[in-house]
Design a protein that fits this description.
Layout: H1 2-37, H2 45-49, H3 63-67, E1 71-73, E2 86-91, E3 96-100, H4 105-118, H5 136-144, E4 159-162, H6 168-177, H7 183-196, H8 199-205, E5 217-221, E6 224-228, E7 232-233, H9 242-261, E8 266-270, E9 278-280, E10 286-288, E11 294-298, E12 313-314, H10 327-332, E13 335-336, H11 338-348, H12 360-365, H13 367-378, H14 382-398
Parallel strand pairs: 4-11, 12-13
Antiparallel strand pairs: 1-2, 2-3, 3-6, 5-6, 7-9, 8-11, 9-10
Helix pairs in contact: 5-7, 9-11, 9-14, 11-13, 13-14
This protein binds adenosine-5'-diphosphate and magnesium ion.
Magnesium ion binds next to loops.
């Protein structure tokens, strides 16, 4: 009898072990498949938006479209390896879209860990509790402030609004006016955007419909931003014929001038100029797609004693090789040639310049083109040089003989 019970126990134990083993194998293969191929049913919008983090999120303007299947996600990009957190989708009318979380998962983690402390709430506070806090306006201003008197030695990321941070209300006017919601939760959204990535704010201030070379802004939902897909990065288009690169160059120089001069009130100094952050479509139109690091300068302030040289121009000094700049100097002068130098640097600087190698025919027939590009990099009046460069490029694009055989 005892032997029988013992045998049954053994059988049961063996059975349990097998079930556990099977469950483990199943769980492992399920996890591996999710890891390699994404979710079983493809991307789930709900997983991307993190709506439960609101109001510590970007807003909810595009949620209706996302949740009513007006926007469909492409499955191919969905994978746990998508560290950049960029997803693609399309509208019912087949307009391709980019869905950007705007930060890496690790950055969100750091951000979420600091929120409660930042607002003096208990550890592990819930996001809704943020609505009970006061002085959100001060916090927002502090995020974009740059102290021109006691300069920070820490490198700055995100949006810097200078010389005085209170100009932020002017900058936000088009955004706050168009919303009819609760002021506090709107300001919490703005605080979150400014702490994670200011792109949704910038795209509503300088809009594609007004002629800025930025993506069309679709809106935000939770921690997801929706923008139009505008083409491939120029860094992936190094193989195209040179005359097409010249077309991109023309538009890059125009954009550098626009970011500096076009807005009535502000200058936009882009801090991350690179061929990865400019895309081009099949019509050779270009778009600046990464607006995370940016200095916005209010050109209409009344300079106080802390800005003795405000009305002088600041020209980028030689700061050693590579891409370096001085936020302090840009913030202390009403006009700086930062965008112009940066544009010339990606066209003709040391790292993978777009226009080099230059076709022999161009060098032979337009030797001053190369000289002008050099003057833009190393000379002292970039505003004048850029105007000349724009003129020469225009001429070359009209004059088909320069771009003749072998270059097209
Ligand atoms: N509007 C867009 N159109 C086309 N591609 C885009 C767009 N926005 C982002 N991308 C693609 O996603 C990549 C990463 O986006 P980006 O905003 O530059 O983020 P990161 O901070 O990771 O550099 C880009 O290099 C580009 O390939
Ligand atoms: Mg980028």
């Amino acid at each position: 009898m005892k032997g029988k019970i013992y045998e049954n126990m053994l059988l049961r134990r063996r059975f349990c072990k097998r079930v556990a083993l099977m469950l483990t194998v199943f769980a492992l293969s399920f996890y591996a498949s999710v890891l390699l191929f994404g979710g079983l049913k493809g991307p789930q919008v709900m997983q991307l938006t993190d709506l439960n983090r609101c109001p510590a999120c970007y807003g909810v303007s595009v949620c209706p479209e996302l949740y009513s299947d007006q926007i469909t996600l492409e499955t191919s990009q969905w994978s746990m390896f998508n560290a950049k957190n960029i997803f693609y989708g399309y509208t019912k009318s087949n307009r391709r879209l980019v869905l950007k979380k705007l930060a890496h998962d690790t950055e969100f983690k750091v951000f979420d860990e600091k929120i409660c402390k930042e607002f003096n709430l208990k550890e592990n506070c819930k996001p809704v509790e943020l609505l009970n806090t006061s002085n959100i306006d001060d916090k927002v201003l502090k995020t974009v402030e740059y102290n021109i008197t006691w300069v920070d030695t820490e490198p700055r990321k995100g949006l810097v609004l200078c010389p005085y941070a209170y100009s932020l209300y002017e900058l936000l006017q088009p955004i706050l006016n168009s919303r009819k919601g609760n002021y506090k939760s709107e300001m919490l959204n703005i605080w979150t955007i400014l702490n994670i990535n200011p792109e949704p704010i910038i795209l509503q201030v300088i809009r594609k419909v007004d002629g800025w070379l930025v993506p069309p802004y679709g809106g935000v939902c939770g921690r997801l931003e929706v923008v139009g897909y505008e083409g491939k990065p120029l860094s992936e288009l190094q193989h195209v014929p040179w005359y097409r690169k010249l077309k991109y160059a023309q538009k890059i120089l125009d954009a550098a001038m626009d970011f500096t001069f076009k807005h009535d009130r502000f200058r936009f100094y882009l801090m991350d100029w690179s061929l990865d952050n400019i895309v081009a479509n099949e019509k050779d139109e270009i778009t600046f797609i990464d607006l995370e690091d940016i200095i916005v300068l209010d050109k209409h302030i009344l300079p106080k004693g802390d800005l003795p040289n405000w009305y002088q121009r600041y020209s980028r000094e030689s700061m050693g090789p590579g891409f370096s700049f001085s936020i302090e100097n840009m913030c202390k002068h009403h006009l700086s040639d930062h965008n112009l130098w940066s544009a010339c640097y990606i066209l003709a600087g040391d790292e993978n310049p777009l226009l080099y190698p230059m076709p022999k025919e161009v060098n032979a027939s337009k030797p001053h083109f190369d000289r002008l590009l050099n003057a833009c990099l190393n000379g002292d009046d970039r505003f004048r040089t850029i105007t000349k460069l724009q003129h020469v490029i225009k001429e070359m694009l009209i004059d088909k003989t320069v771009l003749g055989q072998g270059i097209r």
